[in-house]
What we know:
Chain C: It is found in: Cell membrane. Chain A is 57% helix and 15% strand.
Amino acid sequence: MKEMTILLFERLGLLLIIAFVLTRFPGFKTLLNREFNLKMSLVHAGVFGLFGIAGTMAGVVIDGESVSHFAFVMTAVEKDQLVVSLSLVAVVIAGLLGGPIVGTGAGLVAGIHLLFLGGVGWLANGLVNPLTGLLAGLTARFFSQERVISPLKALFIGVFPPILQMHLLLILQPVGSDIIDKIGLPLVLSNSLAIAIFTAMIAIVLKEQENEAAQATRQALTIAEEALPFLKKHHSKEMAAGLSNLLRERLKLAAVSVANKQEVLAYTGIGDDHHQPGQPVGLSLAHEAMETKEMKVATTRSQIECSHKSCPFEAAIMIPITEANDVIWLITFYFRKAHHIRPVELVLAQGLGQLLSNQLNVLAAQSLKLHIRDAELRNLQAQINPHFLFNTLHLIATLFREDPKKARHITVQLAQYMRFNLKLVSNPLVPLEKECDHVNAYMEIIQARFTNQLKIVFRCPETIPNVFIPPSTIQPLVENCIQHGLRNIASDGKVEVMIQQEDGRLRVIVRDNGCGFPPELLNEVTNKPLNEHQNSGMGLFNVNQRLISLLGEEAKLHVGNLASGGSEVSFQIPMEDPNLKGGF
Amino acid sequence: MEEQIRILMERKKKFLINSLIFLFVFYFGLPFSLTFFPEWMNRSTYFNGLTWGWIFAFAQIPMTWILGSVYAHKANDLDRLQEEMKQGGRM
Amino acid sequence: MNLTYFTFFICIIVCTLIITYWAAKRSKTTNRFYTAAGSLTGFQNGLAISGDYISAASFLGVVGTIAINGYDGFLYSVGFLVSYLVVMFLIAEPVHHLGKYSLADVVCYRFNRNSIRSVMAFGTLLISFLYMIPQLVASGLLLRLLLNIDYSISVVVIGGLMTIYVVFGGMIATSWVQIVKTVVLLSGTFLLSLIVLSRFHWSPSAVMTEIIQQTPLREQFFIPGQLLNSPVELVSLQLALLLGTAGLPHILIRFFTVKNTKEVRRSLLSATWIIGIFYLITLVLGFGAIALIGYQKLVAADPTGNLAAPLMAKELGGDFLLAFISAIAFTTIVAVVAGLVISATTAFSHDIYHHIMKKGTTSEEDQLRAARWSALGIGLISTIFALRMENMNVTFLVSLTFTVAASSNFPVLLLTIYWKRFNQTGAIVGMVTGMIVSLACLILGPHIMNPNGGWITSKPLFPLYNPGIVAIPVGFFSAIIASLIFQKSSQSADEEMAPFFIKAQTGIDMRGKSM
């Protein structure tokens, strides 16, 4: 019995070595991802069944009392020989890991093989495998809530299958009790230990996977933090380049590209000879990703749609990044081979996409807050704009004697203007009507001051549409015209304010016939705050930012010089937008 | 409600008593017939050794199963009736 | 048996117990002390009842009795099984409705007096202890077979180990011990019986022929009367077996642990199926034992056949199978002992200590400590008694327990639940008389008072081996007569009875309303 035990242990050791080597292959690891569909179960059953067959082959043939030969069990055996198979180890593991179906399936495979091998115990061997698989599966379901049963439990459970096998041997073929004596205990011992060790190995593999996932998560979070400074940059190309570099370095990808809706902004990595910034975003998959705001995976060359023949990539992941529900960027990870995309990469990409979008939202919210605060501050200053006040009071004082009626009128207008300025602080959006009143009040005062030098024309539709706009957006434009455009004009200065309804949009145009914008400032005046003037009115920049933040890109200011001299600033806002619900 | 429960319990009692009587007769029938009809009980039937005595003794086992199932079913039914009565007769 | 196989034997026991522990942990019913709190399904409870019930007696004893005495041995099985119908019809549901922790709770629902409680508790203690002795005897014999050591030493070792186990941890999860043990036992014995049949090439007549060869009784083996040599003994035994289960505390408290009446019935049904199948299996095993081992060897190992099953295992499968079957038998015994100790210590700590001595003021820890002490006490006393019972068939010892239960517990329970005119005096008198008479018959009977080999060597005063036919009616009559004599006014009896009866039958508690 001792020799038999040692022999069986040796053979099992062989099997365990093979098993261990198998667990190092990524293919095997994916096998362990528990998916509960029938197809996967059958695959699992097949694999474990093959392992069971390997167990049989590594087994021993007994001839009467002694071991018949030491070679592997490859062919059928004689009628009076007994196959001592080690298949139970694999079958029990199959049952413990995969439940009754996998267990029975694996048992069937191993059992049928044993049926064909024949010998004294052919029926017993053939039966015990599926039976054990089934029972092991049911037991695992019953006992264990963990993903993989603990090796200790497996050890104790593993004691019983060989006992069952011995019983079946005795039932189905009257085997002499001496044979049972010979193989009974060795089988029990070796099987239970092997099952425990095998279970421990699988537990290690699963632990590794978990560790990988944990690391990936940690990586994603770190990247999101490191990306923040890049995201803050306003210049898209700089930001894109920085971001793509960061991602490629951290994630060790083949290549990364960052694109906005129209074109590729930055590209780093292999294949940068034919993938370059400035190229239009042509991939249908990319467009799909941006439409649906969902991550898309390309797994074949054709899906990548690269026309260049030596393009090394076979697979890609496309991640849309959104800010306030609008897709503004598309980040693409490129892979050389399709199977480089493992579940880890997919989860990482998904997570990164969400994190970056979140970061952008946070940044936008922060920036909006800043702008609003800025506007409030400026506003507060404007409320008690000293120069404007002095001048207007002076005007009123002058008018007292000459034209008391007009003096009264201007006083009322001033009061209105200031009242409106007060209201500014509390609402992000006000009805168009109120803003028109505001502009009117201002215009009356200005008109009264510069009666001969300046003429202000205000045109708006008969019925002012029920639209909301940010407060103090038109008045600063007028102020800007007067302060800058018409500064050096002594007479015949004209400012036109036009409010038009056009295709479901409201257009606001402010024109003057002054000196126009200096060309070099044209591009920048709405994009950078200009702080040179002591008369701080609301800067064009501030108005622009508020319009964009509250109403979107479409509402931005369009600034230009007129051919006839003078400047024009306009913007449009969509009407009947459910977002525009400001209120008192 | 007490009245209805009493009627139900009467039914249960009757069923119970019938079952008990059957049980006693069948069970004690064995020692009884062993004592008083030994020749008959010891007559072999199908093969040597399987006497009527054995068959009778064997029969006690399925008798237990069957009688037990019948009782369980009947009692469950009666209980269900009782529940319905409680629900129906409830204020 | 050599050391390797003995280690295997120990190993299987340990595995089974560990698996039990895991099963219990999984279901989180670690109500350490009094039975698991109502979370077993009907079928699981049926398994547990079977586990509590199928002890060494049913397994080793019955196999042995059949092997040696033929037909009469099977009568034991029949009696054991059919008794469940009595439980199902008459006792189970009322007990479920009326009680909470112990059997005394049931009777005290009607007669809430300390005297009754203490008498019932004492009865429980006595019966548990009587049931425990054959278990220790069987395990002692087993150990002797396995290790070839002296019986007395075996018994002391086993008794000591079991007491320690129960005192320090065996209280936990006994429901799961029973369930796992039943599964293992049923599977193991089923496989063993298949092996027996396959030895005889699946032909019953071959078995029969071989039996006739091997037993000195020849054809008479299949004829009743080998063990029970008179009709009186026969009827006495059948009566005691039929009514005994309904008086066994450790079985009856199992009905506290299910949720509702339907589950009670279902658990009983499951139990009868399982026990019935088991007895069929033991029949095959009994036949197999005599056919394969032969009379001489059987009797040499143990004169009353207690070791028939393990010996047959050895014959069929060598030391391997012997170790396995012995391990199963051992686990069975441990499980039953644990169940018995639970019921006995419940009786002591809940009824006597908590209610009576301390008037309901103890904490759970105190009760636990009291329970441990009582477990220790019972363990010690049973071990001492078991030392002297080497030559008794364990089934027989258990049937004596049945007699005591049928004469004391059963009449009192039955009359409490169903008889209007039953009163407290009747209950006390019934219990005490039943116990005394059955014990007296035992002591004065041919077991103890035996000219050759008994404890008291003189001619027996009481002629019957099975005193049931005397003790049981005495128990009943004493209870009835005492009630009638010491009757209170019949009106108060009616009042008392009606709501109680309704509660017992239907579970509806009308006490709050009418009283």
